[in-house]
Amino acid sequence: MIAYVADSRTFFLQGPRSSYVLAVDAHGRLLHLHWGGRVEPGSLGQVAIALDRPFSPNPLPADRRYSLDTLPQECPTGGLTDFRSPAVLVEHPDGTSALDLIYESHAIAPGKPRLVGLPASYCETTAEADTLVIVLLDKPSGVRVELSYTQFRDHDAVARSLRIRNAGDAIRQVTRVCSASFDQPQAERRLLTLDGSWARERQVTIAALRPGVQGVLSRRGTSSHQHNPFIALLDAGADESHGEVCGLALVYSGGFTAQVEVDQYASARTQIGLDAPGLRWALAPNAVFQSPEALLVWSGDGLGGMSRTCHRLFRTRLARGKFRDAPRPILINNWEATYFNFDTEKLVAIAIKAKEIGVELMVLDDGWFGARADDRAGLGDWVCNERKLPGGLRVLAERIEALDMRFGLWFEPEMVNPDSDLYRAHPDWCLHIPGRPRSEARNQLILDLTRPEVSDYVYLAVSTVLRSARISYVKWDMNRHLTEVASPAHPAGEVHHRYVLALYALLERITSEFPDVLFESCSGGGGRFDAGMLHYMPQVWCSDNSDAICRLSIQHGTSMAYPLSSMGAHVSACPNHQVSRTTPMRTRGHVAFTGAFGFELDLNKLSPEDLATARELVVEYNHVRRLLADGDLHRLREPSDNQAAAWMVVSPDRRQALVTYVRISAVGNGPISVLRLHGLDPAARYRIGEEVIGGDALMAIGLRLPPTHDFQSRTWHLEQV
Ligand code: GLA
To answer: What are the Cα distances from residue 159, in Å, to 150, 153, 182, 309?
Structure first.
């Protein structure tokens, strides 16, 4: 519900338990009054106190108490009396960037309009959400900024985006665009970010806010392994299950910035938006720049509540397609089993063994095309290498299907190796700066998707392969970051963002043409794990690090924002290929259950005991896969102290739950651990093994665990009686 109180020109965006409140002040400027626990529409008292502050200049010289430098704003700009970080910058023909945005009009309507050309959350009926659009005008230039806010009725979540419209008569340059920006007084909050590297993605960092600018960004042209376009603000004292937390996710897969600026009066300005090095987007008269969307999620139940709202929203109103709500197939991928060294017989032998234990889909990874013997050649030549696979993909797919399994395929469509037929034919089709060397990473260059002929080639190459054989699944990889970002087709300052837009257009085209194919996104593991990609592909290969113990913190951090169903997670061989650790087969399985579950090893090489365990894991997973697909996650013990990790998934009706516990580092003659459960029905009784225990007791008293050895795991399946 969105209410407008005309007397005070105040907007109340009402979630089930939260409110986001904006107001137009006496001079027409849009102020942020509140985002937090729900308040009913009415008078809020004096939220924005005006004081005469030294060195904060006054746009209305008669009023020394009025300065943009101290007002809590919703869409701050630069060049006038606010010295803090702007949300929007537009450069005028004279080189200045002043914008004085004054309220012009607003409209409230049921539903949520689509964002043209960009991924976004959506509703299925207009009753699910309301949208407020506020139009602000800079009179001297004719530039309008249209702020869009969608409040979901069933979620404490607001989707925010903006459009910049040039109603003036000269070309202007957009140089900064934050999808969300708001000023709040509580600078004693803490900032959560998800940081890391390749093979160590999305580790949770929580740090106290301090004066000045702090935050994370990516200049890599993708959302990146290094920082994720998701941040959260935690109130003092907030933790996993208590206190107020605000989460912000950018629905965008390119470079981004997410920052908090604490000013001289301890006011915190939080912003999230796209960021491209040297962004200069030419806006012709009457042209419009559409920002990506930011999703703003509020929780009064700590980080856990925030994550559950994110999960439900991302899973059901951001991801799309027929696999959105479906439990995903149990798959086996040959990458860590064979790397580039395979042929049809070897793959079929892996598939036969996998079928025996109940695996449903076989994915052929890198190396099936062109002259791809290793990572030095072949990217761009999407034609099956029949020396490895006689008869081509069609024959291989038929043999897999004859086992009553489905077949999936790896692509890296955005790339080209200099050693490829594609590059020899079109050496200018990659991003590059004429007259400068072309930097390579993993021996590859990036195709300039902003050129229609290049995008069309990629579309044709991928779709031709998808039509050539029965392919039910695609792993869409992307294994380097953008450098020499230039294109003959566009001004340099536009190419970063245009690349992302062109990628989205390509993904839209391919995924809508092949609605029966399950698409998984990947970028050297989780280098492009963001809300934008989830709109096209409901799951992402979480990390190239498949070690069960490393995965605990990777999946824990990922789960802050992203649903379990989106995290590709596989059982791999031991000693593990990334960190050399040996963990029990059962533990590898239990960790991989809480994602899109699969295997990535040659089952023919397992000991009979491990193979038997793998078979049991599939049986156990089948028993809980519906619950895992749409249940609510409760993190019980975070892996940060390297002692143990525990979490549980509770079905939406609270009739079932799966609890998982993994011991990381054992202690000699250790204490008994207590695991208090969450999210159950306190009035219900649950069968757990041989016992029946009340939900109240399971939550108040918990389970008792004797000391265990390193890397041991346990699961408990709870069912209401
Ligand atoms: C990336 C992916 C891996 C694998 C390789 C193949 O690193 O993340 O899973 O597909 O590429 O080259």
So the answer is: 5, 12, 14, 13
Helix (H) or strand (E) run with residue 598 in it: strand 596-600
**Is residue 336 within 6 Å of ligand 1 at its C-beta?**
no
How far, CA to CA in Å, does 507 sit from each of 94, 229, 518, 537? 39, 20, 13, 9
Distances (CA, A) of 668 to 67, 596, 629, 703: 63, 35, 37, 21
- Alpha carbon 77 to chain centroid distance? 28
Residue 533: strand, helix, or coil? helix
Q: What is the pLDDT of residues 677-694, one digit of tens each?
A: 999 999 999 999 999 999
Confidence of residue 48 (pLDDT cuts 50, 70, 90): confident
Reply yes or no on whether 710 is catalytic.
no
DSSP for 685-703, written as a single string = EEEETTEEEEHHHHHHT-E
As a 3-state breakdown, the chain gives helix, strand, coil percent values, each rounded to 5, of: 20, 35, 45
Using alpha carbons only, how large is the chain's radius of gyration in Å?
A: 26
User: Which residue is closest in CA terms to ligand 1's atom 2?
Assistant: 524
> Quick one: which of 642, 640, 660, 641 has its CA closest to 650?
660
Distance CA 642, CA 666 (A): 9
Quote the CA–CA distance of 306 and 293 in Å, as a whole number: 18
Report yes or no on whether pTM surpasses 0.85. Answer: yes
The count of C-alpha atoms lying within 13 angstroms of the C-alpha of 221, restricted to the half-sphere facing its C-beta, is 25
Q: What is the pLDDT of residue 43?
A: 83
For residue 556, give the H/E element and its range. Answer: helix 548-558
> Which of the following is catalytic: 275, 365, 477, 632?
477
Which of 222, 375, 473, 479 to probe ligand 1 with, by most ligand atoms within 8 A of CB? 479
CA distances from 211 to 185, 269, 271, 401, 525 (A): 13, 11, 15, 61, 35
Taking CA atoms only, the protein residue closest to ligand 1 atom 7 is: 524
Summarised one tens digit per residue, pLDDT across range 317-369 is 999 999 998 999 999 999 999 999 999 999 999 999 999 999 999 999 999 99
> Which amino acid is located at 105 in the chain?
S
Structure confidence by residue, pLDDT tens digits, 111-154: 999 999 999 999 999 999 999 999 999 999 999 999 999 999 99
How confident is residue 49, by pLDDT bands cut at 50, 70 and 90? confident
- Give per-residue pLDDT as tens, 69-113: 999 999 999 889 999 999 999 999 999 999 999 999 999 999 999
Q: How many CA atoms lie within 13 A of 249 on its CB side?
A: 30
Helix (H, G, I), strand (E, B) or coil at 165: strand
Atom 8, ligand 1: residue with shortest CA distance: 524
Edge-to-edge strand ranges of the sheet holding 18-24: 2-5, 10-14, 18-24, 30-37
Strand, coil or helix: what is 228? strand
